[in-house]
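A note on notation is needed here, since sequence and fold are reported together in a single record. The reader may check this reading against the record printed directly beneath this paragraph.
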Amino acid sequence: MTIVRIGLIQASNDLHGDEPVEAHKRLAIEKHIGLIREAAAKGAQMISLQEIFYGPYFCSEQKTKWYAAAEEVPNGLTTKLFQELAKELGVVIVLPIYEREGIATYYNTAAVIDADGAYLGKYRKHHIPHVAAGEGTSGFWEKYYFKPGNMGYPVFDTAFAKVGVYICYDRHFPEGARALGLNGAEIVFNPSATVAGTSEYLWKLEQPAHAVANGYYVAAINRVGIEAPWNMGEFYGQSYLVDPRGSIVAIGSRDQDEVIIGEMDKELIREVRDVWQFYRDRRPETYDKIVSL
């Protein structure tokens, strides 16, 4: 199969952050199931949701309340529910979840589910930000909620393509993006939650650069809206698919819940890599200081 249809889902959070955790999860899961069905009806074969899709971006504050949102992966109810949905629709799903391991160890994670409903594995976000979002007390306080990932940069051989995952802040680091390419990724999904005024100027710069440097597709997903009570800024959407030449194939709106559909041409990956032999011309024996400094 040369052409694969990619579905990217961007959505707003519909509840005030003071509402109970379970209320957020219930409403958001119901909403995203509907959006996945819409994507599948439009022909999407591989579908990704946004970072921690089943609630607000709660890292705007530091409260133990949100630890209750975490689940085991793959044994939690949400992963199992979306395994059933993937099997029913015959689609691959990249499912970003707040993961709990053991009693109280937490990760920012994405499960990868194949088109037959099989759980293929998970990626845990490696790079964890802890920075203010402009003035005030809101920020990306992720070190309060997540340990850094410890499972490397896996690539999952799905029914339609070889998939890598990089989550939000990871996209600022080229090393993992290259590792995903070396591990065989044909497409890398980057579920995100990022606001205007912080990194918007990088949104359409870094990920096309990763796509070109590594000869694969990148699917960038961002939520939309302003989330109360934090009001840390506008999640500016504009989810997009970019090809290995750095051309944006499909892009979403700035402020609307939306299913974005774009086509991935796996033959283009081969064409680009035949021209730009970056993997052949690498000099890993000269890169020791990158990891030693």
Summary: The CA atoms of residues 124 and 218 lie 18 Å apart. The first helix runs from residue 21 to 41. The chain has a mean pLDDT of 96.
